Amino acid sequence: MKALIVGANGQVGKHLVSFIKDQENVEAKVMIRKEEQAPHFKELGVETVMADLEGDIPAIAKAAEGVDAIVFTAGSGPKTGDDKTILVDLDGAVKTIEAAKKAGVKRFIMVSSYDTTREAIQSSDSSFAPYVVAKHYADEWLRATDLDYTIVHPGALTNDSGTGNVNVATKVEPHDIPREDVARVILECLVNESTIGKEFQVVSGDVDVKEAIKSL
């Protein structure tokens, strides 16, 4: 399987690419938007392709040529304004979904937010609500397609070293999770077809990632 990693230059994305490098049956192709981001991946021997989530659908579809799956782990980041949240976390996600359809890529893994329900929007403070709204509608758009999707809802992200142990379910108690472990979860979703059509929350826990994903 060859997977296009959208948001590969982010922290979760870099962990994921690193883990994929150790797999015999999965290959990464990374989508980046700046040439200066390329050396890191070229040193790993990973194929890179240039495309911008603020660009058009055909450009993203071209980046997806020759892959079997797309992982969307991009985000505007906490230091940007609401405009970038809409352009990247919502519109960028929707354009990537449409690009997958245009490129004939059926498998799509979305890294969303911990809770993107309508209730979460209503209960969020004014600074966080736009992000939840963006993720909510991106998830809704994906659910409405006939793509073989999986939606991952991670808890609060940390830069702690991963433990390889998580807690996954449709609903779990709020907790944090290292970005490294989120990447492990994404990889397991890529290689485990039983996750198709499912979405789940994931936080740090005491179950090995492989076993946790198998239990879904």
From TrEMBL:
CDD domains assigned to the protein according to its UniProt record, in alphabetical order: SDR_a5
Entries under Pfam families matching the protein: NAD_binding_10
Domain of life of the source: Bacteria
Domain NAD(P)-binding: 7-192
Signal sequence coordinates: none
InterPro entries (alphabetical): NAD(P)-bd_dom, NAD(P)-bd_dom_sf
This protein's name: SDR family oxidoreductase
Organism whose genome encodes this protein: Paenisporosarcina cavernae
